[in-house]
Give the backbone structure.
Amino acid sequence: MNAHTIPDLRYAMSREAIIGHETAWKVSSFGVAQYLHGYDPALLAAIEEAALKLKSSHAVHKHLDLTFITGADRFIPEIKELLHDKLRLERLSDMMGTKLEPYPLSIVGSTVTFMNPKDGAVDWHCDGVPVTELIPLSISNPLVGGHLEIYCDDSETGRAILESGREIPRNRIMRIDHKMNYATLGQFLGVLHRTAPIQFGERVTLVLNQRSVAKPYVDDNRMFYLAADNDHDREWVNELAEDVWTNQLPAYRRFEEERPVAVAADAPFPGCETDLTPSERLFVQVGPRVRIRLAPAASLSQQ
């Protein structure tokens, strides 16, 4: 696996294309992609075997109709190995367009999900973590349902539709079928999505979560949301608080200090003449802080 190539890309769409407008709360403009991952099949088989053994004692089903092992790398060392693999992180960073690191909260850094008619799938939601990699460990053949569905519009519009008791319009849903040996990378922060209910068959998936090194504060994991799956353990609350003080807050302050100063739309730029009224001015942007003043339309028509 070469960290700087993306072999056999099956799907790809930008974040703005999915949501339908520009967004600010993001780590990059990357939306979703599915690609040949090249991970060691023996390693993935060992992860699935260990997860199935732990399912009865460690899996929870409390929220979003999802059955999964939270913080799976705490119990399965092979997951921790892959989660922190330098080559994997370099390639995902290249795809995302910003340097990534493993998500630091122990209960959310990685999960193993079990999806079938009895265990459920996962309902419509937006992710709390910024960046997620979905790696199928096994997919039954046949499998009816179980594909990824992404709502292509603003997530609040979709949530309002669901809250009113209506279904998401089918013409607004992008479908991505999972495939063995292929991983799906998504920035599902503020992107409404779900796994289609499984009517027949099953799928076991390894989920590895990441965040931006430069913007660790870009995160939607609210405490009540985390507690919905992890109300049996409160140690993660201290982890989260420590990360806020030591990582998120310093990064946010750096971002605020470097933020460009907003310029009013009618404010003069250095070097630009200001003898015209605002309604008469016409500027063309030719650089970050460079504008050329054109003659007003009335004077052009007289030439």
Residues 9-258 form a domain with the Jelly Rolls fold (CATH 2.60.120.620). The helical segments are 15-19, 41-58, 77-83, 86-96, 155-163, 223-230, 235-258, 297-301. Residues 278-303 have pLDDT under 50 and may be disordered. The chain has two domains: 9-258, 267-303.
